[in-house]
Amino acid sequence: MPSGTAPASDPGRAAIEAFVAAARTGKDDVMWRMLSTLSRQRLGPRLADFRRGAAGELTEGVGSFRSFRVIVSERITPELGVVAIDGLRRVEGARERSVYAAVLRLEGTSWKLELGGPVRVRAIGPDPGARERVVAQVAAAVEGRSGSGTAVMYVDGQTVNPTVAGTATDSTLYANLEPGLDPGRHTAVVFANAGREASALAWAFTVTAR
After folding, report:
1. What is the pLDDT of residues 71-87, one digit of tens each?
2. Separation CA 136–CA 140 (nearest Å)
3. Which of 12, 29, 76, 156 places its Cα 20 to 30 Å from the Cα of 101?
């Protein structure tokens, strides 16, 4: 699962493509099998519970992607990875461009989607969907971490080296960009874990001038 690329053999791309297809067609049982054991415990713990709850949200969310490309797919630890997509969603009859990120967990020989974990990632700036004249820094907050962990940030699919400040349970990641980003639409993806728990977030924004 190399960063920023998605060759045909990439298990991250294979996992997210299969999950989006299952969500798009409302195949709750397929989505259920593609979730990690911890995710099934959180979102279930039975398939019937999943169908009454999170399945509908996933169908309306990630299932609304009609076309997309993988912008990040990388193994971060022996057990955990991250995958993110950028594409077109159909929302209330209209098409809009959007991004989505998920943690992947290796169980046996299969990569499963990890959702609903206690680690939370929140965009600080630029805000999701923002239009800014100049962007020379991308920042996010990570909440709920404790103990040892890893935080990785990507801008436009490329790994950047963020500075991490704060406490073990509430930290801020920020990457200073020199030069600032070119005019146009850009994406940011953040992965963070604490031990075996992890979360990921993707968002997009637009720069209007250098």
Report:
1. 999 999 999 999 999 99
2. 14
3. 29
pTM above 0.70, yes or no: yes
Q: Which amino acid is at 3?
A: S
User: Any idea which residue has 């509430």 for tokens?
Assistant: 170
Dist CA 96 CA 112 (whole Å): 27
CB 67 within 8 A of CB 85: no
3-state secondary structure of 206: strand
Cβ distance 16 to 70 under 8 Å? yes
Domains in the chain: ranges and CATH: 11-114 (3.10.450.100), 120-207 (2.60.40.1220)
For CA atoms 92, 93, 98, 101, give the dihedral sign: positive
DSSP notation for 101-150: EEEEEEETTEEEEE-S-S-EEEEEESPTT-EES---EEEEEEES--SSEE
Chain mean position to CA 122: 11
Read off the pLDDT of residues 158-183 as tens digits, 9 standing for 90 and up: 999 899 888 767 889 999 999 999 99
Helix segments in 25-68, DSSP class H:
28-34, 37-43, 47-52, 54-60
**Which of 42, 13, 17, 41 is closest to 30 using CA atoms?**
17
- Choose among 202, 13, 188: nearest CA to 113: 13
